[in-house]
């Protein structure tokens, strides 16, 4: 009875929940959700992006974007998050752009060439994503400052996790065990660290960044390998100990 | 036994004469207003005046009566009723609009229109922000109000600002549903703060806002709205229906006007509903369409007039 009286109240509540703009998984059967930006917002933001190298992540850039898209200065009110929308738009579009790197995802193989593994693809895609910041890297610290603001941090962190998930997914990772989490967490950490390193890198063609990235991947391999070995050793020892006790007649 | 029969007869009586759906509230005379003799005939178009239903033709004059009564003590009363918070709301409203901002140095400035802006509260803030923050001394504003006595109050107050008698500030007595003296596609920013709930035909006013705004121009509305937390809502309702008419009586000597005020707040469409009204008028809304202030006591709604693609 109590349930019956409560149910009608629950139903309108569940109706009110809006469809998520971001889907936490990849689907081959359903088209991707429309994303966090409306067509008008996208047209203004994409017009604003070319102004970032000269004006940075500022209100001026946003204003110039509205003008270039045929709108007026007042139209910047379309973005309740203001300048952070520029950062978010860059993160979002560059993440989606990764799927277009055909030469990495399905490389044309010459005869007797080995099919590149998941690890190679992950490294290549991570590098491509870093290179997408190439034009605006001298302004990227402004964006990092926006992302560190408490009100914007949830969006920034969810974009980072979506990015590492996207990279692993595109590389063909199909793990379904706890390593799923380890892979994404370690890639997120590597990416965030390398991106920060890149903001101060003055070397030609970002050679230093490339080496930094390779060292981080090596670290993870060593740590991951050591962790795996330690876990295997601990498991074996525990098993052996148990069997020794059993052979002595302990009923376990 | 006797008590049971008494109970039963009472119960029957209650079935025969159902209780009025809205129980009377302490300190409030809303029931009296609701039962007032001015019930319109069926064939007339009607609208809300607080909890009363009045013919559309009558609302305008009655709202005019309310604001003619409160014009002089308007700000004192606002301070008393909102404990001074209305100033924070207005400051935040203006700051979020960022009037006068521009990407170019030789910008012609923003052309702004403050509807129902009688006392100039919002208008002076908008001009201050445009001048001091965005260095846009060419931004102008038209203060429009349907009520000449509210507008007179605004003119009086403008003398204390640096905008007195400057071409940046002008006054216009007009009904927001028919702004025929203002050209189509001419305004950058249309603001209406604590005014739209008094309009007889809100849809018509929204369509008129859409007409006067430039493509890309902004409609911005600061208005009382629905409190989202039910516990806070109970406290807030108690305050507004009991204390505000009482304060009105004590400070301004006018209970009925303030009774209308709280009733009109209650009758005004809530956040989602008003957002949809703005969308229906043709505007695009930013994000979810509104921003709650102080738990939803007030809300800022915005709409942007889309640019027609050639």
What does this structure look like?
The complex is a heterodimer of chains A (252) and B (310). Chain A is built from 11 helices and no strands. Chain A is mainly α. Chain A has a domain of 151 residues. Chain A starts with a helix and ends in a 5-residue tail after the last helix. Chain B has a single domain, classed as Vaccinia Virus protein VP39 (Rossmann fold), CATH 3.40.50.150. Helices cover 45% and strands 17% of the residues of chain B. Chain B has a 7-stranded mixed β-sheet with strand order 5-4-3-6-7-9-8, sandwiched between helices. In chain B, strand 3, helix 6 and strand 4 form a beta-alpha-beta unit. In chain B, helix 4 runs antiparallel to helix 9, helix 5 packs across helix 6 and helix 9 packs antiparallel against helix 10. Chains A and B meet through helix 4 of A and strand 7 of B.
List the helices and strands and how they pair.
The complex is a heterodimer of chains A (252) and B (310).
Chain A: H1 2-16, H2 39-48, H3 52-55, H4 59-68, H5 84-97, H6 102-105, H7 118-131, H8 140-147, H9 153-170, H10 179-198, H11 207-247
Helix pairs in contact in A: 2-4, 5-9, 7-9, 9-10, 10-11
Chain B: H1 2-16, H2 30-34, E1 46-49, E2 52-55, H3 56-70, H4 74-82, H5 85-97, E3 111-115, H6 121-133, E4 140-145, H7 148-158, E5 169-173, E6 187-193, H8 202-212, E7 213-224, H9 230-252, H10 255-267, H11 271-280, E8 290-293, E9 298-304
Parallel strand pairs in B: 3-4, 3-6, 4-5, 6-7
Antiparallel strand pairs in B: 1-2, 7-9, 8-9
Helix pairs in contact in B: 3-10, 4-9, 5-6, 9-10
Distance between the termini of chain A: 49 Å
Order of helices and strands of chain A: HHHHHHHHHHH
Class from helix and strand fractions of chain B: alpha/beta
CATH homologous superfamily of chain B, by name? Vaccinia Virus protein VP39
Shape summary of chain B: globular
The CATH architecture classification of chain B is: 3-Layer(aba) Sandwich
CATH class of chain B: Alpha Beta
Helix content of chain A: 55-70%
Overall SS class of chain A: mainly alpha
The CATH topology of chain B: Rossmann fold
End-to-end C-alpha gap of chain B = 84 Å
Residue fraction in strands of chain B = 15-25%
Unreliable residue runs of chain A: 1-19
Helix content of chain B: 40-55%
Low-confidence stretches of chain B: 13-38
